[in-house]
């Protein structure tokens, strides 16, 4: 599947019905998600691989990975409503993906590749959220694709180094987020984010 066709398909993935501000629930834009998974496929980390979408939300990375030839795709999220949405979309489009309701710390699935958009840490309850996700990724896979606010990358680099991992590829994006929560002041806000491809050196 070509990247543009993938992007068009991903535009149909549902957003969160009632976003939970403490979980920082934002859907990754279709153009960003398609580019990330397409890059991962070019690195050989998707086709024929077991891919885990950690903190999958409504499943946009899961669907992209399946459509680009993953052998098996697993989506995990703590939000039961989001998982129900993901399952419904998968069934409607005949996509064979396993979705589970789990806390990230309890995930123990074996996989080759982890793809995730962890909490950015904008809420006090999630200040260490990204670290929890990265540490779990190191336990589960040989390679991780993870999105972070660009301004936090120096901190993330130090963390990955302390975990004996290596960042071998990065790419910057602009995250255009629509107003989805009551406390959002603007109808649309841009965030500079950076994708990291991390080798865990397992």
Describe this structure in words.
The chain is 32% helix and 25% strand. With 202 residues, it is of the alpha/beta class. It has one domain (28-199): Vaccinia Virus protein VP39 (Rossmann fold), CATH 3.40.50. Strands 3-2-1-4-5-7-6 form a seven-stranded mixed β-sheet. Helix 1 (3-10) crosses helix 2 (30-42) and helix 2 (30-42) packs across helix 3 (60-67). The N and C termini lie far apart (31 Å). Mean pLDDT is 89; it is low at 122-126.
Anisotropy-based shape: globular
Helix content percent band: 25-40%
Determine the CATH superfamily: Vaccinia Virus protein VP39
Tell me the CATH topology.
Answer: Rossmann fold
User: What is the helix tally?
Assistant: 6
Order of helices and strands: HHEHEHEEHEHEE
Strand composition percent: 25-35%
Name the average pLDDT.
Answer: 89
Q: Gyration radius, to the nearest Å?
A: 15 Å
Number of domains: 1
CA(first)-CA(last) distance: 31 Å
Oligomeric state, counting identical vs distinct chains: single chain
Largest sheet: 7 strands, mixed
Structural class: alpha/beta
Describe the secondary-structure layout:
Blueprint: H1 3-10, H2 30-42, E1 50-54, H3 60-67, E2 72-77, H4 80-92, E3 98-101, E4 113-116, H5 129-140, E5 143-149, H6 153-162, E6 166-178, E7 188-199
Helix pairs in contact: 1-2, 2-3
